[in-house]
Amino acid sequence: MSARRPVFNQSVLTDSTPLPKEIPAVEELGASSAPLLSASFFIGARCKDYNDDFMQCKTEKPGRAEFDCLKEGRRVTRCAKSVIEDVNKHCLTEFRKHWQCLDDNNQQLWQCRPAEWKLNKCVFDNLKLEKVIPDSPKGEIPVHLRPHQKYAHRGP
Amino acid sequence: MPQDLPPAGGYGPVQYKRNLPARGFRPAVLLTGMVGIMTFGFYKLGGGIREHNELAREKMWSRIYITPLLTAEEDRDLVRRHYADLAREKELLGTQTSAYNSDRYVRPTFAVTPSKILK
């Protein structure tokens, strides 16, 4: 991701040749950064195995991972898409509220806790996906559940 | 003739010390107050740093969870462009030659621009 991408700004110079027929097509996710950030922990909760598979494949095949891990990559994308679709189906209003709040607040998660709590509750009730931050210290309230957010400009 | 002599009982004391009023609290009180205020400040700072660490952890994990997804999408795009390049080369030159002496995929540095724009 760090390398310079062979893309020009002019749309007419973008290579639009589709993938060859023998590689199965997969619908891309099509979500922008704020919805992805908002749904990231749910994606992580449901798709952890697929994600780990993909990253393991990438690690084990240095130099050829772009070609040899396409299958795992399609699984990752399909799984993430299923999460986004489920969230859209069950919690559309809460989801929208949260990611629009993130968009309005420089994508700082701590500015949008009330919207996030509503979204987390709805997602947990409907999809049984819970937001858990790994490796957070034991015996403390996880930072996304603290009623007072020290860095929030307004409110909790 | 009587001489000038000090008055009986001597002169009164001469005031040579400055007589400034000692305003404000005692130094011990001031020092204690300063230590208290600074302790409180460092306590609040520590709390803020801890919360900041947790927020950074949250942000990092949110990125970790969507990294495979972004990588997969980008890989598909790169593969698509790579095959398009190979096809273009085949069409133009009739051969497929790699510029590198290995099978590894190398991210293209240069992109071919069309000589005439179709659209």
UniProtKB/TrEMBL annotation, chain A:
Task: Give the GO biological process terms.
Answer: mitochondrial electron transport, NADH to ubiquinone
Which keywords has UniProt assigned to this entry? Answer: Disulfide bond, Electron transport, Membrane, Mitochondrion, Mitochondrion inner membrane, Repeat, Respiratory chain, Transport
Q: Which residues form a coiled coil?
A: none
Checking PROSITE patterns in the record gives: CHCH
Pfam families xrefs: CHCH
Q: Name one GO cellular component term.
A: mitochondrial inner membrane
Q: Which family does it belong to?
A: Belongs to the complex I NDUFA8 subunit family.
* Its biological purpose: Accessory subunit of the mitochondrial membrane respiratory chain NADH dehydrogenase (Complex I), that is believed not to be involved in catalysis. Complex I functions in the transfer of electrons from NADH to the respiratory chain. The immediate electron acceptor for the enzyme is believed to be ubiquinone.
Q: Which PANTHER family match?
A: NADH DEHYDROGENASE [UBIQUINONE] 1 ALPHA SUBCOMPLEX SUBUNIT 8, NADH-UBIQUINONE OXIDOREDUCTASE
State the protein's name: NADH-ubiquinone oxidoreductase
Organism listed in the record? Hymenoscyphus albidus
Automatic annotation (TrEMBL), chain B:
Q: Where in the cell is it found?
A: Mitochondrion inner membrane
Membrane topology field: Single-pass membrane protein
Q: What is its main location?
A: mitochondrion
Q: Which UniProt keywords apply?
A: Electron transport, Membrane, Mitochondrion, Mitochondrion inner membrane, Respiratory chain, Transmembrane, Transmembrane helix, Transport
**Entry's Gene Ontology cellular component terms:** mitochondrial inner membrane; respiratory chain complex I
Give the transmembrane ranges: 24-43
One Pfam match: GRIM-19
Coiled-coil regions listed in the entry: none
Q: Which family does it belong to?
A: Belongs to the complex I NDUFA13 subunit family.
* Function of the protein: Complex I functions in the transfer of electrons from NADH to the respiratory chain. Accessory subunit of the mitochondrial membrane respiratory chain NADH dehydrogenase (Complex I), that is believed not to be involved in catalysis.
Q: What is this protein called?
A: NADH dehydrogenase [ubiquinone] 1 alpha subcomplex subunit 13
Please report the organism this UniProt entry assigns to the protein: Hymenoscyphus albidus
